[in-house]
Amino acid sequence: MSLTELSRRVGVSLANLSVLKNDRAKAIRFSTLTALCEVLECQIGDLFSHEPAGK
What we know:
Blueprint: H1 3-10, H2 14-21, H3 30-40
Domain HTH cro/C1-type: 1-47
GO molecular function: DNA binding
Protein name: Transcriptional regulator
């Protein structure tokens, strides 16, 4: 699915979706996470990865 299509389905701007995709977001609304998961048919944890500080 393209970012444009995902943006349309989730209801967020393409610019904001690009910020999320490129790991530049400082915060995200829970409603946006929920919408992303509904469209992508995933769980919230599937959207995140964690690397310990300093690595």
